[in-house]
Design brief:
Its EC number is 2.6.1.-. The chain is 41% helix and 14% strand. It is an alpha/beta fold and 382 residues long. The protein is globular. The protein binds pyridoxal-5'-phosphate (PLP).
């Protein structure tokens, strides 16, 4: 029956990250610097709220958009932290992680043969959904601009098919973010154009240079903001995301969400309410720790002679492979086998990631130090 599988689904490739894992997972004694999730536990008070929800039998469906208290807390969080005002009744949807928010946004706004501009290299979670919608990803080359998407770069990729621009900042895999001025320039470029912005701000709390700015501050009427608690509150397994958009967009996304999952998990919603209120600033101590690790890794990598842009947010370095012409997959495989350190080949983040590797610093200092020692010895042996 495989020949009857929907062609767009059957053409989706498993992610480069997964392919690579499958090849190196068995390597004995390997240190992994690959992971894309925080290494801290979920805060105790947030866990307690989830446990209480079970004991209180809060185990039924909620409003499709999420509990109103939670939507109010989410709206307040965005207003207080990022100065963007959303109506909790009609402009906020609680989703099953940012992943579901990405899915229902694309399925609501994309038509067949439309185009989505993405800054390459980029998180691999967008392209398969875009393709499932029958639309096409267009990768804007940011490699010559320190991985920063600018209004000028976007402008050179816009066609009459462009339906959406993805602004995923701070970025996975590059750690780059955009300043208020850069976001304002993009908003001015798009002001009179019929183009949506999908702003994936899942790393907004993990910023090391300046406070995060949302493009929704300047372009709310065209922007769908996606965020969640996976990274800010170390809650990847709870599956809670947040989507913000003006009512005339959100009401259509809500239909897709409703027929997709009905509502986010009630128990996780209670934990999320605790996280966004009592745990409003739970990310701050984690941010301080990530910053220390970032500075340490940056010093080590630059001393080894690597060409690397210092990340301004998230917890990744996107590092240029020092051997010219070597494929990122081959380099990562060689590093895994000879140095026993796993990193993610840059090609997992679109063709524009070729020639790089991603190193995560969501690991303890001890693990980072050992991993970097091994990379250093590997380079010396070459
Ligand atoms: C840029 C980006 N967006 C979205 C996600 C998915 O987040 P969630 O766990 O909330 O589905 C990730 C996860 O790594 C990510 O890096």
């Amino acid at each position: 029956m495989e020949h009857l599988i929907n062609a767009r689904a059957s053409n989706i490739e498993i992610s480069g990250i997964r392919k690579f894992f499958n090849m190196v997972a068995e390597t004995e004694g390997i240190i992994s610097l690959t992971i894309g999730q925080p290494d801290f536990p979920t805060p105790e008070h947030v866990k307690a709220a989830g446990i209480k929800a079970i004991h209180d039998d809060f185990t039924t469906y909620t409003h499709n958009a999420g509990m109103i208290d939670l939507r109010k807390a989410a709206a307040e969080y965005y207003l207080k932290k990022y100065d963007v005002d959303y109506d909790p009744d009609s402009e906020v949807i609680i989703t099953a992680g940012a992943s579901e928010a990405i899915d229902i946004t694309f399925r609501t706004i994309l038509d067949w043969d439309t185009e989505v501009i993405l800054p390459g290299p980029v998180y691999p979670g967008y392209e398969p959904i875009i393709r499932l919608c029958g639309a096409n990803p267009v990768y804007a080359d940011t490699t010559t601009n320190n991985f920063k998407m600018t209004a000028d770069i976007i402008n050179s990729y816009i066609t009459n098919k462009t339906r959406c621009i993805v602004l995923p900042y701070p970025s996975n895999p590059t750690g780059i973010s955009l300043s208020e001025k850069e976001l304002y320039e993009i908003s001015e470029l798009l002001r009179d154009k019929d183009i949506f912005v999908l702003a994936d701000e899942i790393y907004s709390e993990l910023v090391y240079e300046r406070p995060h700015t949302s493009i929704a501050k300047f372009l709310k009427e065209k922007t769908i903001v996606i965020n969640g608690l996976s990274k800010s509150h170390s809650m990847t397994g709870w599956r809670i995301g947040m989507l913000f958009a003006t009512n005339n967009i959100a009401k259509h996304i809500l239909k897709v969400h409703q027929y997709n999952i009905t509502c986010a998990t009630s128990i996780s919603q209670k934990a999320a309410l605790e996280a966004l209120t009592v745990g409003f600033d739970d990310a701050l101590p984690m941010r301080a720790e990530y910053k220390k690790r970032r500075d340490y890794v940056y010093n080590r990598l630059t001393k080894m002679g690597f060409d690397v842009v210092k990340p301004e947010g998230a917890f990744y370095f996107f590092v240029k492979i020092p051997v010219s012409g070597m494929k990122s997959f081959d380099f990562a495989l060689s590093l895994a086998h000879e140095a026993k350190v796993a990193v993610v080949p840059g090609s997992a983040f679109s063709h524009l990631g070729e020639g790089y590797f991603r190193l995560s610093f969501a690991y303890s200092m001890e693990i980072l130090e050992e991993g970097l020692n091994r990379i250093e010895n590997y380079l010396i042996s070459k």
